[in-house]
Amino acid sequence: MKEFPTHKATLKLVSEISSFLENIGVSNHPILEELIYVIIIALISLVLGWIARVIVLFFIKRVVKLRKFEVGKELIKQKIFSKICNILPPTILLGLVSFAFISNDSLVLRVLDALIKIYLSITIGVAICAILAFLWCSYDSRRNDKNHPLRGVLNVAQGVVWIVIVIILVSNIIGKSPAALLTGLGAFAAALMLIFKDSILGFVAGIQLSQNDMLRVGDWVVVPSTIANGVVEDVSLTVVKIRNWDNTLVMLPPYTLVSTSFQNWRGMIESKVWLISQSVIIDVKTIVESDEVLVNEIIEKYPSLKGFVENNRSYQGGLAGINGTTETNLGLYRAYLSSYLISHPMISKQYQLFVTLLDSTPEGQPVQIYCYVASTDWAIYEAVKSEIVEHAIVAASQFKLLIYSEML
Predict the structure, then answer these.
(1) In whole angstroms, what is the distance from residue 41 CA to residue 44 CA?
(2) What pTM was estimated for this model as a whole?
(3) For residue 390, how many other CB atoms are within 10 A of its CB?
(4) Which of 158, 129, 253, 261 is nearest to 197 (CA)?
(5) Region 181-210: what's the mean pLDDT?
(6) Most buried among 115, 140, 143, 305, using CB within 10 Å?
(7) Where would I find the H helices in 175-265?
């Protein structure tokens, strides 16, 4: 029998393997003994890893159930403990595999040792990345009140973990220190920068977007140079995911938003009002000087204008004041529309509100309605805007004005 290291458990296992081979008529076959030993300890490692995972998860679930830890629930949901327990099988296998070989210089042992170390490193990398992802999710859901795009930071951290693991693995395989390997990589810095150009630009752009508070998850953005017009769903190291209003998804590199202009509607959402800036065009031939008969008819139809006409005020200051004149039917029309907007329940009185004239056009004289709807709900906004424009068109005839066309 071979000279194995003095480890009682391994000696017993090798002895049983030798006896089994002798019983079936195969003896003095070192390679077959080594192969069977490796298979057995691999199975033992997997079983022990599975048992450890079951035990750990059982106790963790019991503690979470009794203590009602929200963090523990999240850990279980993201399978953090399961990924950490995956480290056990390669660790056990690495500790036992050398006992199957007579010489530590065996080629098979060196190959197995390298493969197991690769397996162990991958499981360690998966575990660390899972922990980082959990920490990021916890911070993003609890403390990231402003929804800053921090997924790029997570991507960079996970990338650094895998780079370190790859460097360590390569250095072990080639038999050189990681420092020497890093020194050698300096010669390939230019090539690496070219390969990872998008990732580097995305990381820098993500920092700019976050630092300047230019973009958050949940923002409604419009990027004029693209078809993007919707809500930001995710911002990662290499892509910004935007869901358009037709539910199509647009993927943009983060540096596109930094290098070009884009419109962010967050300010409108936070103010809880939405601007209406709509025009109707009046036929200039119907604009006439007002007389006493016309003024009396208007007051009779719209008593709310009586105070304005009696005081003969051509304008009234303030955020929600009546602006118009008593000299023309168009001036009275503007005064009426101002009064109508002030009394409208869905128009905010805390923001600018007025009805004014724009530059004349060949079609006629545009009358602009400028006010804010007290809602950022799209359906409500469109309904209120349509209602106001419809009323403006119908009311024009009461002032002996004709609408040349509808909205500009």
Answers:
(1) 5
(2) 0.55
(3) 11
(4) 253
(5) 67
(6) 305
(7) 178-185, 189-195, 197-211, 254-259
